[in-house]
Amino acid sequence: MVGLGAVGIVAGARIQNAMNTVLAPLEAADPTGLSQLIPAAGGFRIYSVTGSLPSESEAVYRLTVDGLVNNPLTLTEEDLRAMPATSLISDFQCVTGWRVPKVHWTGVKLSDILDQAGVKPGGAALTFDSFDGQYTESLTMSQAMRPDVLVAYDMLGAPVTRDHGGPVRLYVAPMYGYKSCKWLSRISVVPKVVPGYWEQLGYDVDAWVGHSNGRSDPATD
Ligand SMILES: Nc1nc2c(c(=O)[nH]1)N[C@H]1C(S)=C(S)[C@@H](COP(=O)(O)O)O[C@H]1N2
Ligand SMILES: [Mo]
């Protein structure tokens, strides 16, 4: 137990240092180091690990789907809106504790996009990149095929705003908010899970709301 506790403290210190490096001088009071740039309507907080809010117009926006696929895709927002749409009403919960109940989401099921791209044998996981140039996320293939995982272009009854990661963001309904990569620019099919931005800093890769505290910290697991 003593040994595990020590590991937890070391991991915690590492996370804190890494977050201070990335985020200073933003929101130093936030114990997680996550940056709250703008208090948003309806209980959301607007997060960006880069300390700024990137922007891409609908005209230049492209979503690349590549890696272990038979048909790599380059999709515009119009292409996505022309695909079969799925709407969900589901909570958005950040691992730091805030939660927005019953948010309306519309987009394309990630599974539909993967079906169109044609996953090759050996494609067992996905990586997600943001056009902010820093944020990344991951899912296993079976998580990605769930019907409640969307590539979302509408949120709160309107196009996803720039603040919330528009024109297109990921929405992983059953998992903590950090899975829902904003300003989504690339989906790659890969052989195994590559931990995302916060996961490299200690958060759980499997971020099920309620099953996980979002952090792989042996001192508190
Ligand atoms: N590109 C990018 N995506 C991101 C983040 C981020 O900092 N950058 N923060 C994540 C976290 S921790 C949460 S809780 C949600 C917050 O979404 P919101 O800014 O729309 O409230 O976005 C997730 N996706
Ligand atoms: Mo979060």
Highlighted features:
single chain, 221 residues, alpha+beta, Sulfite Oxidase, Chain A, domain 2, 5-stranded mixed β-sheet, 5-stranded antiparallel β-sheet, 5 helices, 20% helix, globular, disordered C terminus, binds the ligand Nc1nc2c(c(=O)[nH]1)N[C@H]1C(S)=C(S)[C@@H](COP(=O)(O)O)O[C@H]1N2, binds molybdenum atom
* N to C succession of SSEs: HEEEEHEEHEEHEEEEH
CATH superfamily: Oxidoreductase, molybdopterin-binding domain
Q: Helix coverage percent of residues? A: 10-25%
Note the total helix count: 5
What would you say this structure looks like, in words?
The protein has 221 residues and is an alpha+beta fold. It has one domain (54-220): Oxidoreductase, molybdopterin-binding domain (Sulfite Oxidase, Chain A, domain 2), CATH 3.90.420. Helix content is 20%, strand content 28%. It has five helices and twelve strands. Strands 4-3-12-7-8 form a five-stranded mixed β-sheet. Strands 5, 6, 9, 10 and 11 form a five-stranded antiparallel β-sheet that branches. A two-stranded antiparallel ribbon has the order 1-2. A hairpin with a 2-residue loop joins strand 9 (149-155) and strand 10 (158-159). The protein is globular. The termini are close together. Bound molecules: the ligand Nc1nc2c(c(=O)[nH]1)N[C@H]1C(S)=C(S)[C@@H](COP(=O)(O)O)O[C@H]1N2 and molybdenum atom (MO). Residues 34, 44-49, 94, 130, 132, 135, 164-165, 177-178, 180-183 line the site of the ligand Nc1nc2c(c(=O)[nH]1)N[C@H]1C(S)=C(S)[C@@H](COP(=O)(O)O)O[C@H]1N2.
